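Throughout our pipeline, every protein is held as a single compact record rather than as scattered files. Nothing more is needed to write down the fold, since each code stands for a local backbone conformation. The record that follows is passed on verbatim for readers who wish to inspect the format.
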Amino acid sequence: MHNHELDKGLEGHLVAGRLKPQEKDFMDEMTRNAVAPKNILSTLKERDPENKTSAKQVYNARHRYKVKMRASMTEMQHLCKKLDDNKYYYKYRTVVENGVEHLQDIFFAHPRSITLFNSFHTVLMMDSTYKTSKYKMPLFEIVGFTSTEKTFNVAFAWLSNEKEDNFIWALQQLRCLLRRETNLPKLKVGCPIPNSNKSWKQYCAKQSLGWEDSFIAAQHRFEEMMSTENVVPIQIVGAGSRETPLVID
């Protein structure tokens, strides 16, 4: 017996928000295709206006599906299996702490990205995200540029720390993607390239203090030269023929 009327709004109720069998199959299919949970929920609401499923229930259902797909494998084993199935190039290294082996860094690249990288390897942009994942590992992303001014992802790396050793290891794996050593960029002898970080400006040699200013000045001069259009006047010198060819001294 209840002393109040039944609530007409059942939004958030666990029983009312249960997924129907056909909705569950649809959600599993969308999860396999990497559809965002919010898009899955909005599609369910569009198909059935009376649907009371909440976002939390969608996340829980996705989690149960992923656990079922992983079966008895660990998360690391499942990741390596997915990389093998999709023929990714990947390398990883581990560290032993308190007698237990832990993942330290993992590097992976798609086969298509490797092909593009060997064709367009001159300019690369690299950046690292903040530790926003549940594993607290920053994602190191490497991006390249094609001849048509389009960008493409070269490779990714999950790093345990943003230290010099971790980035050196990732760049060594990146170098292994080049099929020919001739693709490596080479510098002229005695042509130094200063680092772009702040620590270099604090500890650089005295003779290199003017590099940045001279480079900027040279860039400005180049832009001025390119903006000036040199027009050569056209001079009509006459017409020639087979009998009397035109000779220009």
Summary: The first helix runs from residue 21 to 32. The mean pLDDT is 78. The first strand starts at residue 89 and ends at 97.
